[in-house]
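Project standup — Tuesday

K.O.: blocked on the structure for the chain from last sprint. Re-posting the sequence here as requested.
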Amino acid sequence: MSAFYLSALQLALCLGPMALGIYISMKVFNIPDITTDGSYTLGAVVTAILLTGHWPLYAILPVCILSGALAGICTGLIHTKLKIDALLAGILVMTGLYSINLILLGRSNVPLINLPGIFSISIFSNDTYNQLLVAVIIVLILSVLLRYVLKTDFGIAMRATGNNPVMTQSLGINNDRIKILGLALANGLTALSGFLVAQYQNFTDVNMGIGIVITGLGSVLIADALREWLQVRHIGLQIALVLAGSIIFQAVLACTLALGIDPNLLKFVTAVFVLLIVAIPRISRALQKKE
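H.V.: unblocked you, prediction finished:
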């Protein structure tokens, strides 16, 4: 496998936590959370600030996750307490986070070259293999932890709230609290992706999160199509399919660039690809009904 496709694989793994965050908001709660664009950048901004401040990684990681969780809590509070539509609540928080990220970063772009980061290990002679190993280990640990959380009473309550909020309310579950905590978890995972990608690409840019929700959504939609095709019900396998969706999505974009498509058209190709993922199954079902 060429270094080009290995890099695409590594980026897919770094974006895996963000895809899992969107899976929680979209598939567990049925909430289109646009906060993702802002919390992803926020994770990268906090990483840049603390790395340049020579903080240790074990301290930077929880701060990044907490920052994303706070963004999710803000969206959850606006949605549940102010009774504002979840989509609009996410847009409001995302818009506010753009200014906050710019103020925190102090400028539009901060390089992280030659700073010790999470990918600074030297097990293999090839740096790409070292970085890939770290990404795989992080994603595996995260997948196991998320599977555990979703199978706890809290995780079952989250899934039940998204599936039938009337029933959960009748059982005495505080739906608003569950939604707030769920959005906090989703955006904490998204900020973790910002933490990883900032160190992978060796810079943080205040605009790096623009449109990133489409990438995560594409990964989740691919996973959803695979889940229906393979008839997967086990929560652990669904998590694995989301990560597989992230890899497939980045592989398609890598192939697009390998074919010589203008990089300026990459966002357009991404949008078209997500549109096809959404449209093809629906067209197929419509044709089957006509027959």
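K.O.: great, moving the ticket to review. The domain at 3-290 is CATH 1.10.3470 (ABC transporter involved in vitamin B12 uptake, BtuC). The mean pLDDT is 88.
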